[in-house]
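Example 109, ligand zinc ion.
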Amino acid sequence: MLLLDCPCCGQRGEETEFHCGGEAHITREGPSSDDAAFEHYMFERVNPRGVHFERWRHVAGCGKWFHAARDTVTLEVWGTYPAQTSRPPEELLEKIRAARPGFKWRDIA
Ligand SMILES: [Zn+2]
C-alpha cells in the first residue's frame, strides 16, 4: 500500500484516495512535430525497475494533479511535488541519489 502526501492540500492518504495518471514529465508534441516524435509522445512510456516519476490526482480530496517519485520495486515513495514543474525538485533528486548511488535524472531504465 502506497502512502502519498498531496502537495496541494497537505493531506496524507492511501493510494485508494488517489488515481495514477502515468508517467510524469512527458514532452508534449504539437501539430508541427514529425511523425516519429509524435508517435514517441503518444505511445512510448518508460517502465523502469526502480525510481519512477508519475502523475497522480487526489480524487478523494482536493482533486488536483501532482507528481510523485517512487520505487516500482520497493514501493518506497521518495516524495511528491506540484505538477507545474518541468523536472523534479533538486532536493528530491539529491535524496534519491543519496540512497541510490549512480541514479541520474532521466537515466531511469
Ligand atoms: Zn490534495
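Summary: The pocket of zinc ion is lined by residues 6, 8-9, 11, 58, 61-62, 64 (CB under 6 Å).
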